[in-house]
Amino acid sequence: MWRGLWILVARAARGPCRPCTRQGSGAPAPGSGATIFALSSGQGRCGIAVIRTSGPASGHALRSLTVPWDLPPARRACLRLLTDPCSGEPLDRALVLWFPGPQSFTGEDCAEFHVHGGPAVVSGVLQALGRVPGLRPAEAGEFTRRAFAHGKLSLTEVEGLADLIHAETEVQRRQALRQLDGELGDLCRGWAETLTKALAHVEAYIDFGEDDNLEDSVLEQADSQVQGLEVALNAHLHDARRGQRLRLGAHVVVTGPPNAGKSSLVNLLSRKPVSIVSPEPGTTRDVLETPVDLAGFPVLLSDTAGLREGQGPVEQEGVRRARERLEQADLILAVLDASDLASPSSCNFLDTVVTPAIAQSHNGNSQRLLLVLNKSDLLLAGDPGLRPELSPHLLMSCLTGEGLDGLLEALRKELTAVCGDPSTGPPLLTRARHKHHLQSCLEALGHYKQAKDVALAAEALRIARGHLACLTSGGGTEEILDIIFRDFCVGK
User: Which of 247, 244, 301, 241 is nearest to 269 (CA)?
Assistant: First the structure.
């Protein structure tokens, strides 16, 4: 239905309006830029739907649909009867708002129509706007792209807005809001100011190096500023991809010997029947993945085949894939049957997976592990008798839910270490683009330190400063901008 609706709107926008029985005032001047319109709220039946326009013909469009009324006071909601600008047929009684540029989201003249959310009402208003001269349907992300073009948002703020729209967990929302508020952009601009000062000192030395009035320490000041900036850039580049994990999700792999309760734990954490649970060993033969919200963090949770010598080619392939996923995991949930720790499969799993992972984590490996002893309800005593070197561990029962709160708290702490805490500390790098430009900036600073000629040192600082500018402005590269804006929905 909605695809057909947009076809009708596009056709109406391409063709001239049939002779109208009335004419609004304030039509756009010939040759002026296109004015866009779109449904900005969610599609489908709803209480209120928001349709908005942006561009020089926004005022004309608002007058055309609310004749005989003039434009309402700026940024004040007014109740108006909306009518078709050509036939005069009533469409809806709605709230309208007028945002004259540049005090608007896009920096252009904007109008909003808050109509009743029935499909017929929305369709009628969109088709009416399509018949107003100078208007056309918006493309995906075009409102935000115009805001960026008019200096209302920096590129990092645009990325924060996109992340906020797609945020599904609490920590994603916090991180996106910090970036939308400009924290990452402000940090980059502060670094750029440091480089500007260093460059000014170097260029002053080039221009006035033989002047007795120039201080001898001018180059030392530039070197000190560059050294401090290198420390800051390295700190952000070596954050173990926390920001990207927070935006895209951390990879948590559930592993263990057969019948330890891995599938039961996955179902419990995801709150839905993702995996088949059966007393028969080897039920899970492939990697089953599901996105979940764990303690507010986005997680891709993987249920894997029980680690043992496969009983056939299918199970052997499942075990191979399980071991492959283990190498890719950000966090491993190692599950054992607490009532059967002395079994050969449990001992083999402890020796080949758990013990080496714990040793690697002690040696600074970024991969983390939580040892979960399931089936605590089958223990006669509280202590499962685990080897001391394998502590700490979490004792729980997937059947009764006992110990689940402790596991969730442990997961929260581990995921905070893996993804970072968006509520505290400096802003995180959330995209590969951020890391690329900071790395390139750092390389240019390395060239500055190695330069034998002062003019070459100054050029290295200009290149470094250019990479910082690309973080917030995109550097004028249309391909980069297209990639960033294509993930926005129509109407935003």
Answer: 301
> Domain check: are 285 and 365 in the same one?
yes
DSSP 84-151: -TTT--EEEEEEEEEE-TTSSSSSS-EEEEEEEE-HHHHHHHHHHHHTSTTEEEPPBTHHHHHHHHTT
Interhelix angle for 478-485 vs 155-166, to 10°?
20
Render pLDDT for 44-101 as a digit per residue (tens, 0 to 9).
Answer: 788 999 999 999 999 999 999 999 999 999 999 999 999 999 889 999 999 999 999 9
Residues 255 and 232 in one domain: no
CATH number of the domain to which 87 belongs: 3.30.1360.120
Is residue 31 pLDDT above 50, yes or no? no
Number of domain units in the chain: 3
How far, in Å, CA of 287 to CA of 289, rounded?
6
- Is 197 in the same domain as 88? no
Domain boundary among 394, 419, 444: 419
Q: Which residues of 264-303 are buried (b: 16+ CB within 10 A; e: fewer)?
A: bbbbbbbeeebbeeeeeebbbbeebbbebbbbebbbbbbb
| Confidence check: pLDDT of 9 > 70 | no
Which single residue is written with the structure tokens 């050029």? 459
H helical segments located in 329-453: 344-349, 355-362, 404-419, 432-450
Instruction: Tell me the per-residue pLDDT of 108-142, one tens digit each, with 9 for 90 and over.
Output: 999 999 999 999 999 999 999 999 999 999 998 89
CB atoms within 10 A of CB 207: 10
CA distance 428 to 246: 9
The pLDDT-based confidence of 363 (bands split at 50, 70, 90) is low
Answer yes or no: are the C-beta atoms of 156 and 184 closer than 8 Å: yes
The model's pTM is: 0.77
The helix (H) or strand (E) run that includes residue 52 is strand 46-54
Phi-psi region of 367 (alpha: psi -120 to 50; beta: other; left: phi over 0): beta
Asked if residue 113 belongs to a domain, the reply is yes
